[in-house]
Amino acid sequence: MEPLSPYEALELDNDCSIVLELSKDDPLFEKKMKLLQSKGFNSKERINFKRDPDFVTITLKVMLQIARIINLDEVELYFGDDGISSPDDPYSHRNELQALTSILRLIDISAYSSTQMQKDLFQKLHDAIIDMIHTFAGNNSMQPTIIENHHCDKENDLLKWGEQNGIRARLRIAYVKDAGRGAIAREDLKVGDAALEIPASLIISEELLRESDMYHVLKKIEGISSETMLLLWSMKEKHNCNSKFKKYFATLPEEFHTGFSFGLEAKMALSDTLLFEEIIQANNHLHTQYDGLFPILCKEHPDIFPPELYTWEQFLWACELWYSNSMKIMFADGKLRTCLIPIASFFNHSLYPHIVHYGRIDSATNSLKFCLSRPCSAGEECFLSYGNFSSSHLITFYGFVPKGHNPYDIFPLEFEDGTCHMVRATWLSRNNHIFHYGLPTPLLDYLRRLKSPILNTKTLGNLENELEVLEDLLFMFNDLMENLGDADIDDGIETSWDVKLATKFKDIHRGIVSSVLTSCYEGIKLLKIELSKCMEEDIRG
Ligand SMILES: C[S@@+](CC[C@H](N)C(=O)[O-])C[C@H]1O[C@@H](n2cnc3c(N)ncnc32)[C@H](O)[C@@H]1O
């Protein structure tokens, strides 16, 4: 799941200003720097505030433009400005929320150490940002159906146990349509509110492993990771009726439905797709890992590793548990650990999440807080962002496809010279004009240079070159479409969960390819119109 954003720099002076700075440690520093410069900004910008309400709005706009770029991820950066039609347009839901909340944090930190006069101004800025978050979130939300008549006795037991042991939850657990259980807000939750707070002592991490009888055996195995050791620990702990986490284990499903459990029919449906490769490779990796550990461990230490608890099926179950439910948490000692977190593991993922910043133990309270980046009303499901994952990753490791258009569903394109580019659904772009066609500029520029290295591309004199570029893309994507085959017809026969997911995946990919083809056709039409205009002008002399 997603790590915390590493940026932020604050300097406050008497004139009341905030400094937004792109961190030099940002792995995308050069690219972001270039983009900032193209918009007239530097990597470090001081924003001064005056006591004028209009100035607040204007300045926040500028701050947002900078914060958006600072918070871009690799995919957003690649597709850059292609997806936006005006400087006020957001790059993506994730980016916008992260940019807004990062400004909010900066303002709140500044207010903390300011004079009373400055505090008033910062309060105005704070309120203005909250309004912007409300407006943005209101236009971008998706709520599932909550199934109220499905009993949640085990989940309620766990919640009660948690609250008795220091967990603070402003959530209840309920079944939701097509996603198992989910976390529902018990009350209206505002931006900054902690929907859930878990004491570090209730987090399942490698610390527990060290106290167990298997640690002294496992630590002698060369190259074994702490994640694998913990996974083996959980396989046994699940059956321990004296376990501190017994109520947590009781809420876990008997079987997980991730890509690792895909049957033959679903795999066959996926053949020729990248997801097929991903699933096969991931499965092979697990088999190799299992075969390296078992049955040796059971034979040498049957009391510690009872063979009936360490079958391949149980191992696969534990892998699916850890892949689909664990979170990476930064502890107060600065170590990042993969953990299972009771109750927090009921949060489902959304492309329009409420919680984006999490994963760091608050050293003041020694607890993990899940604070909201956008409001969640009582009765609504409260969503997390698991990370910027494609549908194929989410199917393989989590077993679902999120609702909405996933901006991380991309087709990687590798060319003969080793250059890599990517394409995603062109409906995510709002720039369908000539020379753009909804397609990514880095890819178009690369293809233009391949065709004609010396021509300056964006002039009408190059229309023929441009036409060839689109025809090449058309050829490439027609091929991809053929590989995906025709859409499966719903014949009314009950389909298994894995075949349904495989079908959904192929439908998503067909949709993306089809959007690229449509954009190419539309682009070719535009170019032909321009070409005929040019020819007419030539004839007229
Ligand atoms: C951390 S758990 C979340 C709680 C889970 N729904 C449960 O009942 O235990 C992750 C799993 O929840 C499901 N899930 C999460 N987000 C989902 C979504 N947006 N749509 C469908 N299923 C989702 C997937 O099965 C995933 O592997």
UniProtKB/TrEMBL annotation:
Against SUPFAM superfamilies, the record matches this protein to: RuBisCo LSMT C-terminal, substrate-binding domain (SSF81822), SET domain (SSF82199)
Q: Is the NADP keyword given for this protein?
A: no
Pfam short name (any one): Rubis-subs-bind
Domain (SET): give its ranges: 169-387
* Keyword Cytoplasm recorded: no
- List UniProt keywords, sorted A-Z: Methyltransferase, S-adenosyl-L-methionine, Transferase
Q: Which PANTHER family match?
A: N-METHYLTRANSFERASE DOMAIN AND SET DOMAIN CONTAINING PROTEIN-RELATED, UNCHARACTERIZED PUTATIVE METHYLTRANSFERASE
List the protein's name: Uncharacterized protein LOC107410546 isoform X2
